[in-house]
Every structure is written in C-alpha cells, then in structure tokens.
Amino acid sequence: IQIFGDGKAIRTFIHVNDVVNAIVNAVELDGFNLINVVGNEETTINELAEKIVKFSGADIKIIHKDYSVPNRNLRFNNHRLMTLLLPRLTSFDDGLRDEISYMKEMVHDNI
Question: CA-CA distance, 25 to 110, in Å (whole number)?
Fold first, then answer.
C-alpha cells in the first residue's frame, strides 16, 4: 500500500450501504436539508492501511511516499445525518471487513 505523505491525515469514512440508506431516507424528507453523509469515526490514513493489512491477513507492505502538500483533515459534522436519516452507522471496522471480504470474493470468482 502506497501512502502519499506521513499518513496522519484524518478522514471519516462511511460504508456504501449507509450512503444508499441515507439517500433512500432523504427522499422522504420534507423541504430542503443540507446533510453531511459521512461516518462518525475519525481514522488516519495510516490506521486505514494498518487495518487493511490486519483484516486481509495478507502480507502487505505499507510504503510512505514523499508528498509536499500539507495534510488536510476532513472532518464533518454528521449530527443531521444521525438524527434525520440514519440512527446507526456501520462501524468502520465492520465496514472495512465487509469490503475486504467482498474484494476477496471478486478476485476469487475471476481467477
């Protein structure tokens, strides 16, 4: 896994199923609403890479590449998402495990 920069940039990932459910539920809302459709667990890029290695069980090396752009921490308030559209989100770890399992199936089915 190549990480550009020091890997300390923060993101709030969200599972694709949660995004779909939020969109479906948003159709039922009255009026105009601005809602950030983002997760609620802050995760660094380093943590993401480490968990990919751990959950995949594969022998994967993490390599940091020089990147001269400063880190951008992308944090968004998802209070309206949680109160208006989704009372519960898929946890980061569960979502990542689901995606790794899906990718393994896709690779296996195409060999």
Answer: 35
Q: For residues 37-62, give the mean pLDDT.
A: 95
Q: Where are the beta strands (DSSP E) in 2-95?
A: 2-4, 10-11, 43-44, 63-65
Give me 101's structure tokens.
């399992």
Prediction pTM value: 0.83
Q: For residue 78, give the DSSP letter.
A: -
Answer yes or no: is pLDDT of 110 > 70. Answer: no
The span from the CA of 84 to the CA of 89, in Å, is 13
Tell me: the pLDDT tens digits for 54-93? 999 999 999 999 988 888 888 888 998 999 999 999 999 9
